[in-house]
Amino acid sequence: MMGSIGSVLIDFDGTACSHDVAEHLLEEFGDPSWPSYDEAWERGEIGAAEALVAQAAMLKGTDEEMLAFALDHCPMDPTFEPFVSWLASEGIAASIVSDGFGFYIEPLLRSAGIADLPVVTNTWIAVSASKLAFTNGHAVCRGCGTCKMSAAVRFRETHGSVAFIGEGPSDRFGALYSDVVFAKDELVEYCRIDGVPFQPYVNFDDVRRLLESGEPAPGPVAPSTCPGWRE
User: Fold this and answer.
1) CATH 3.40.50.1000 placement within the chain
2) pLDDT per residue as tens digits for the range 90-102
3) Does residue 1 surpass a pLDDT of 60?
């Protein structure tokens, strides 16, 4: 096992799920201006939580309509369920960690036959004006809704070495504090910018092969201050 990995954290949108569910919902039920908030966040002008609240307010579908759309249009990666089963057979702790709208994650996992996989994400509250509660955010920093840095640090303290699997900007800070990183798409460039060693992958069969390879885990870069820090 690569570096005796004790736990695996997995992004959801675009990673465990083959599609970015939040983006699909915004395209179907939101306002055409929704990408401007992602762009402002990537430029560092606003925090991810601020962007999420603004985008959630754009969604005009009912929860039932949006969930039905997600189930119909956003299939899970077919290699994900076998990967989760393998992790369980090896006694490796695993969790979804997502900085999205959250409400569709567990139904989509169930649709793929996946039960009892912990999920760390934002809390969707349909009756709230903001629609979101950031129950897994950082105690001080307001840069992200769900703090993937905190998740990586917590799992490392509890289970030992952490592997992180992701693909986008919201995975950047989790990757910085994990022992080994599996990256594709936009996360590849962020890893290069931050000096994070990473393993490229296409699907979870690739991840499993690399975890079984016995290669040493590089260890976390772990800067003293997360580059996404916002008070």
Assistant:
1) 2-18+76-122+135-211
2) 999 999 999 999 9
3) no
Distance CA 177, CA 66 (A): 33
Looking at CATH, the fold of the domain delimited by 2-18+76-122+135-211 is given as: Rossmann fold (3.40.50)
Model confidence at 55: pLDDT above 60: yes
Those residues whose C-beta lies under 8 Å from the C-beta of residue 178, and which sit 6 or more positions away, are 9, 152, 156, 162, 163, 164, 220
Residue 81 to residue 101: CA distance in whole angstroms: 22
**Residue position matching structure tokens 């969604």:** 59
Helices 48-58 and 35-42: crossing angle, nearest 10°? 180
Percent of the chain with pLDDT over 70: 99
pLDDT of residue 44: 85
pLDDT score for 3: 59
